[in-house]
Every structure is written in C-alpha cells, then in structure tokens.
Design goal:
elongated; 4-stranded antiparallel sheet; 63% strand; 383 residues; 2 domains; 23 strands; mainly beta; Neuraminidase
Length: 383
Amino acid sequence: MTVDAAGNLYIVDEQGHRVLKYAPDGTFAHAFGDYGDADGQFLTPFRIAALTDGTLLVADKAKYQKDFVSTLPQRLDNPRRLLNAGSATGRLILQREGRTFRYRLRRVQTFTTAGDFARKSLIPFQREREADAALRLNGIDKDGNLYYFNREERTFRKYARRTTLRFPTMFQTELKLRYTRELQDVEIDNQDDLDADLYTKADFDQVIIHDMADARLTVAYDLNEALRLALSNRLAYVRMSDTNYYRSQDFEDFRGTFNQDDRATEASWDNRIQLDLIWVRNHNIYRYREARAFAYFSTIRLDFRNAALDSQNFRVFDFGADLSDWGGGIHYDLSRTFRLNFEITHFFGANNYTYLDETNVLYATGFQEANTTRAVLFINGFF
C-alpha cells in the first residue's frame, strides 16, 4: 500500500488484479485496473508507490520476452541441440541451430491518482546472467527508482524508471571469425603406358591449396518492445592455388617445344553490409504479426591468373572482375499463414582479361560489362 500527498490510501488487490483507492477518512473512492497484460491492466499487482510528481507507480508480475537469435553454436552438452522428442505421437521436433539470447522484461506502469494509465516502463534482465535471474523487486522510492534485491548475494540493484528500453541492456553484439585451409594432392598414374616410373612417379600431379578467412559482425538494438534495428557486416577473403605437373612429353608445334606445367591462382574479396528494421505488430503467440524492411550493399573483387611454370614458356592468362549489387525489400504478415514480400535488387559487373601465348605474344584481350535491375512481388504461405 501507499499514501499520496493528499492522504489518499492505495492498496493493491493481487487476487482481483486491481488497485483500490480510499479517501483520507477511510471511505472507498474507486478501483482501477482489471486482469490482463495490456496497458492499464494487471497480472497480480504486488507493489505500489506514490511519487513526488503526483503519479502512482504499480508493479505487477507481467513478463515479456525478447530473443536475439544468434548463429553462434550452442553448447556441446545442450540436450536439445539437435532434436527433441515430441508428445505421445512420437514425433521428432527439429530444434533450430544456434544460440538464443533471451531477455525477460518486467513491467511497471504509471497512473494518475484518478486511475488513468499514463505510460509503461520495461526493465530488462538477461536470462543467461545468473545475477539477473535472482533479482526481485523489493522497493520503489518517491522518485520512481526501482530497487531489486539479490537474496543470495545480499545486494541491491537500482534502476531508473524509463519509458524506453535502455541502450546497454538491450544491445546485442555478435562477432564471428573463421579461418580454414584445405590441402589436396591428386596423383594419376597411367598403368597402360608401361613406363619405367610405374608405381613410383605419377604421370600427373595436382596440388590445390584453398585458404578462406571470414569475419561477420552483427549489432542489434531494441528501440522499444516492438522495434528492433540490426546492422550486419560480412567480410570474406578467399585464395586458391592450383598447381599442375604433367609427366608427359612437352607440347610441340611450329613455334617450338613448351613445357605445360602451370599454376592457377584466384583471390577474391567479398564485403556485404545489411541494415534490418523489424516491427512486431502483434506479440500474441496465436496472432503473431511482424513487418520487416531491409537494405544491403555488397562488393566483390575477383582476380584470377594462370601462368606456366617453365621459364621458357611465357603463357599467361589474367582475369579481373569487379562486382557490386544493392537491394532492399519488405515483408508484411497478412495473417499467421500468409506473408506479402517485395524485393528490388540491382547488379553491376565489369571484367577484363588478357592472354599471352607461349612466345609472349598477345593472343586475346577484352572486357565485359553487365547492369541489371530486378523487382519482384510475391505472397508466400501455407495451408
């Protein structure tokens, strides 16, 4: 219970999901609130305070959840990592790979002394933080500051009342770094040629080295309980070398004799930036609706070179390409089963190449350009 500056008494009715107001002389004035999780409603109200600004602050047991679905792997000992047994039907339900970071949002509401709803404040707690899970609301001061108590640690945590989610607590960052190297060695020996190198030296030897480095950064921030803004950046570098040794007679024509051993190298840079805005129109699990808008821009640089290894063979082929594309789109849930989608993309590419033959004579050169725009509108769903 609490008493305001005018001497009115307010009592929370946990079972009735309402607040009772009594005049200074003890006569009943009125009640406000009913059962529910909408603004102005209560789910077992248990704490009330009269503030210095003349308003009332009421805390109930309504809880919201916000999930950040991460592509980071789950822990190895997670029993639900791959699948989970269903009910008596015996069905197997596939679980989504990747970790889910969940926030529980506890609600406090501001009312006028007449019982009119003013605004709602949400206090976020991260599920994976043990200290957050043990916090319980213990008191509210006259300025509306909330005091949560950790019984195990015997410590208090103070939260200022806000109408929006706070930046440090609803800000999720994910960084993934990956490097891989693949080595392949292929040897082919023709047993029908009856050469002296049978089973000792291959007629053809190929060595492939493939390196890939990949960095992905994703930053997501909840502007409020319905809007989420996310920015992601992916940068990838790939390098591949393919070396071929031909254990056979050198190639010969009117220009001379040339060894055909060669090495092909390919390197590419891929950079993609994407911005997403997600609006949850209805949080109810039976009537869930969302809308999403996104925009992206990406660039790719590709370099390829094939050159002979023998110093007397000048054959070389150089190829370079610059690719870029941008796009954007929206999707809008028409119902639980149907979604409206609109996407527009633009692609631009340019390449050039040069080929020198075995005698260092220019054999071919050229370039190509491509420029396309695509727009598509479609509805997908299920029955």
